[in-house]
Structure formats: C-alpha cells, structure tokens
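Q: Two folds, back to back.
A: First:
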Amino acid sequence: MDGTEGSAGQPGPAERSHRSSVSSVGARADDTVVPLAVENLPSLSAHELHRAVREVLQLPDIALDVFALWLVSPLLDEPFLQFRRNVFFPKRRELQIHDEEVLRLLYEEAKGNVLAARYPCDVEDCEALGALVCRVQLGPYQPGRPAACDLREKL
C-alpha cells in the first residue's frame, strides 16, 4: 500500500496529518490495487488496517488468520503493503477453508509463486498443478472438447 493523498482540493498541512488514503496490492494474479480511505493513517494500527482491507474485500473473519500484511520493496526505497498469505497459518487449517473468495486469493497467490519460481516443484507437482489450472480456467472435462490445440493456446 502506498501512502498517496487525494488530488482534489489539495488539503492543507493540518488536514493532511489527519486524512490519508492508501492502496492495497492484493494477492490476485493481476495485482489488483484496492483503494482504501482511512482516517488518521499515521496512528492506524496494523490490525485496524488489516480489518479495513478485509472489509473492502468482503472477506470472512477467518481471513484475519489466513492473511497478513507484508511490507514489500525491491530496493527498500518505496515500500508498499501487500495483503498476502500468512506463512504461519497451518496447512491443516488451510485445508478446512470453504470460503470461495479466500480460496481464490490463496490459489492466485500460489499460482503466481509457482510461475515466478518462488515455490520449487518437481515434474509430477507441475503436472498436477497444470491440471488444476486447466480445471479452474476451462471448467470440467468434456470428452472431445476442447481439442488439445485449443488447450495449448489457452495455456
């Protein structure tokens, strides 16, 4: 999330210290920016910011444990916050999640990490993950449709 202020009516210094807006880069494949309007950003706790992101994304309370705020910067000069998977969230609990939006966010983040080679995979895992991507993007298998050449174009 970057601390940017609205350009309409440029607030004065006193107002600027009490009102800020932030944007969140989500775990979506296209790194969607989610705008948030928050009051008194300098005194906002991480927990309150996390709650605000969850509310904007309309996620259930389980998202409090599943996702965390990550401070990310390639050069440590312009860091931004990302709403990503909490690495301390146990896999056994992740398997119990049924909320479609939470699962979609986890899927998109994992897919991006595999494609960016952040998650090492052997050939068997790659084949299984490729099958999952086909199922998600193309729907259930139907004999004779789509043809193999159609699959190559989409993948």
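A: Second:
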Amino acid sequence: HITPEKFYVEACDDGADDVLAIDRVSTEVTLTVKQDVPPSAVTRPIYGILGTIRLVAGTYLIVITRKKKVGEIFSHAIWKATDFDILSYKKTMLHLTDIQLQDNKVFLSMLNHVLSMDGFYFSTTYDLTHTLQRLANTSPEFQEMSLLER
C-alpha cells in the first residue's frame, strides 16, 4: 500500500496481521497492524522487497513485482524475480537541479539495467544464502532461527 507519507507492506499469509510501515520522510521502519493502513492508500501486489538504494534524488525502495517458480529444494519453492519496481521515497523532484535530475535519470537507467539481468532468486521458506553442506553442519539452534534472524 502506498500513501504520500508511508509505504505499507502487508503479508499475504493467512492470519498475518502485522504490516511493515516505511516512513517516506524519516525512512524509519516499524511494525503496525492492517487497521493502521489508510483506506485511501494505493494498493498493488508485490512479491518481496529487494532493498533500498540512495541515489541523487534520495532513497528508493526496490520491490519484486513478478516472479517465476524455477524449482524446489526439499519441497521449498525457489523463485526467480523477473520484474521490479523502483519506488521513490520523495514525492517530487523539485528539490533537484537540472544536472542532478539528469544524473539521477542515468543512475535509475543503470539500476534498471542491472535488475533486468538474470540472477535474482529467492525463497520465503528456505535459506538460499548458505550451502546445503554448511546448513547440515550448523547447530539445531541455528536451524530453528527464522530466515530473518539468520
């Protein structure tokens, strides 16, 4: 969900009530509940957050807008991110000079080029950041941690 003040990322899992709120001015990230999302927010589906990047115009949020299932590891779906959107935290570009606008445009073009290349894979239930051998040699406590905690 997008409002002029915040981005709200809502999980689609059954029973999930938490919503990630990202303040577009302070860049502060907090957890809130679905009821806090204003009804006026523009809503659209995303499949994940790739991250943030700071360019000349300010901070941008990079989200995955399309995915394709490419396989499974131990019944865990592995997805390839196939399309992205780059969302500006700033509402306008009026604070930039013509040269800064041009530089920002070039950087966005370079970023779009990198995102168009193959190689962005993810799983919401399996740790792709460690090899199977390394995972087999980790402690039970590590394996019980959420992917976020790892």
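Q: And?
A: Residues 45-144 form one domain.
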